[in-house]
């Protein structure tokens, strides 16, 4: 991986990476020295949610520690790149904790936080997959969280992807009126 970083620098190629964050400390110097523009880190929620999804005890703590070590390398080298983004997929495991997740994430040395709506197929609804938000109370909780985020200023940029209008959240997660033509987003699942 270090060789690829050096090639990008040598040929003046802008590059970024997506990672689970486990090896940031090991490669921190190389990442900074070779001009990484941005790093996207997947974190699945607060400690219990993240560790449950990864199946690895203390994985949340390790990722946070690695992220903080990368920040130290950035500061030691007096650089502002790479930009750091956290991506957190919204699931039934973390939906009721989104506000506390946000409160924790904004304390980290990051430039942006994206809460990503699941992209699923109509089959996921029909078979009631456990990761799909099914009940109206949970969907209402998500709408309240989005409203909360949109009505506050935070020290970092907060995004939602895909960008769904608040009035369309219920339709997106319930597939009642097929407004989002879910069959057209199925290729995202296999990409």
Topology of this protein?
Layout: H1 2-10, E1 15-19, H2 24-33, E2 36-42, H3 47-54, H4 59-76, E3 83-89, H5 98-105, E4 112-116, H6 122-126, H7 136-150, E5 157-161, H8 169-174, H9 187-190
**Terminus-to-terminus distance:** 23 Å
Q: Main beta sheet: strand number and arrangement?
A: 5 strands, parallel
Radius of gyration: 18 Å
Helical fraction equals 40-55%
Structural class: alpha/beta
The low-confidence runs, each spanning 5 or more residues with pLDDT under 50, are: 186-191
Output the strand order for the largest sheet.
1-2-3-4-5
Order of helices and strands: HEHEHHEHEHHEHH
Mean pLDDT: 87
Query: How much of the sequence is in beta strands?
Result: 15-25%
Number of strands: 5
Q: Which of globular, elongated, flat, extended, rod-shaped describes the shape?
A: elongated
Question: How many helices?
Answer: 9
Entry summary:
The chain has nine helices and five strands. It is of the alpha/beta class and 191 residues long.
Observed structural traits:
191 residues; alpha/beta; five-stranded parallel sheet; 9 helices; disordered C terminus
What does this protein structure show overall?
The chain is of the alpha/beta class. Helix content is 43%, strand content 15%. The protein has helices at residues 2-10, 24-33, 47-54, 59-76, 98-105, 122-126, 136-150, 169-174, 187-190; strands spanning 15-19, 36-42, 83-89, 112-116, 157-161. It has a 5-stranded parallel beta sheet with strand order 1-2-3-4-5, covered by helices on one side. The chain is elongated, with a radius of gyration of 18 Å. Mean pLDDT is 87; it is low at 186-191.
